[in-house]
Amino acid sequence: MPLFGALEAGGTKMVCAVGDEQGNILERISLPTRTPDETIPEMLAFYRGKNLTAMGIGCFGPVDLDPTSPTYGSILTTPKLSWRGCPIVRHFTDALGVPAGFDTDVNAAALGEATWGCTREVANSIYITVGTGVGVGVIIDGKPYHGMTHPEAGHIIVAPHPEDPMPVGVCPYHPNCLEGLASGPALERRWGRKAQELSQNPEVWTLEAYYIAQAICNYIMTLSPQRVILGGGVTHQEQMLPLVRQEVKRQLGGYLPGSALENLDSYIVPVSLHDNQGVMGAVKLAMDAASSSGVPHL
Ligand code: ADP
Ligand code: ZN
Known about the structure:
The chain is of the alpha/beta class. The protein is 34% helix and 18% strand. A five-stranded mixed β-sheet has the order 3-2-1-4-5. The chain has a five-stranded mixed β-sheet with strand order 8-7-6-9-10.
């Protein structure tokens, strides 16, 4: 049975896993993200000797996904300075001698759900994570979408609520982007406490839903996804999902009738793979890399 290495590379932790072609995760460890000099050898030690057919990497970004670029497979302008310019894919292909698939962390998570989870019966979907940052993975015709680069749809501009006590967000680049106004750190700055300690404050989640819904309405209008997945630490607040659906309905204003939007409970959904969507997507990236490099794995 062929085995695939899967890495979900995040700014705070690296989830390293081995999976099979059914998406079963057979082994999984989590390492803190320190510097590349420290963390890459630790990760390689986990994968070595496991007779892997290929690697798949879903990585925090921005990343270079252009296969014709000399810096393909590198991390670009991340605020985590020691990782800036790191040729992460090359580290793995050189050390392990196997082909590697590469994408953003959120495209990988979207792909995991689209292959084995709650979007497997639709060809076009998006995965939104609201956590330390906000990121959006986009699946078009069954494949992660890349354009000029990859989508950075966590940074779309949203209209501040007229009664928002913090109408200028925490993003250093944009005064009122979604990430700046709705990420975990934005909640903490606005309300003076960590997001997980704000469950009992309904005004927090009404405002949060207002921003997330604006973003979803914009994605609906531009990408026309057949299903929208909401994940990330902040969405552990279960009272928020119904508020988001209600607010999306209100903001759409009755436009786009007669579609999947009629039942928002099955249109805007929580993650289905229990926080394995990222590594499972990385397994699929590895499987695709093996197929396209001619490695027989089936
Ligand atoms: P990351 O984005 O770093 O990969 P997470 O998706 O867990 O990781 O996001 C971390 C953010 O989510 C933090 O800002 C934290 O405050 C927030 N968070 C974590 N758990 C909860 C919770 N139960 N309710 C609300 N916010 C949470
Ligand atoms: Zn921004």
